[in-house]
Amino acid sequence: MVIAIDGPAGAGKSTVARGVADALGFTYLDSGAMYRSVALAVLRAGVDPDDGEQVATIARGLELELDGDRVLVGGEDVGAEIRSPEVSATASRVSVHPGVRAALVERQRGLIAAGRYVAEGRDIGTVVSPDSPLKVYLVAGDAERARRRAAQTGEPVAGVLAAIGERDTRDRERAHGALRAAEDAVELDTTEISATEVVARVVELARERGLA
Ligand code: DC
Predict the structure, then answer these.
(1) Cβ < 6 A, ligand 1 pocket
(2) Domains of the chain
């Protein structure tokens, strides 16, 4: 079973999904880390991120392990490396390919079937788990999202604003698994409310629905 937390970059998905998982004793799943791991492997292999066939082959064969907050590719901890601006931009490019999405969605469904999860991403409520009993779609103003990302990575806000704008457009416009709210998602705007308040609201929704 999964509580789905979807939304664009910088909307607060990671903080909220982690907080909700901690509060309810569920397992946190960062699906973006999976796309980022594929991107890293593609960059390391010198493969063209726009070559859907080759990238899907890498995605299918990737030895990927998500262990709490650690992300292991072939046993190597890549947690820091997958957060670089280059990997962020490449993750958005590799994630348009249907073969890549199919490979990762299958892995995500396998994990979710085996426990109680809070999963964050772009398509958890629409594609990975359309039957999820609680879907949350987080949004926030562009300037605030850029400010949050810049604070995490130390890059200038203006550059981050442009980069996430580009990423959002690609994530929203792709043919498969596009970023959008499920019809039955609860939309929360996090621009002016603290992560603590958003976590409390989601936990309350989970309790109201008898999930915890
Ligand atoms: O959530 P994130 O910023 O770590 O995600 C990185 C990229 O991965 C994002 O630009 C699009 C892709 N992604 C996706 O296509 N589907 C998901 N469920 C999660 C992430």
Answers:
(1) 9, 31-32, 35-36, 91-92, 95, 121-123, 167, 171, 177
(2) 1-26+117-212 (3.40.50.300), 31-115 (3.40.50.300)
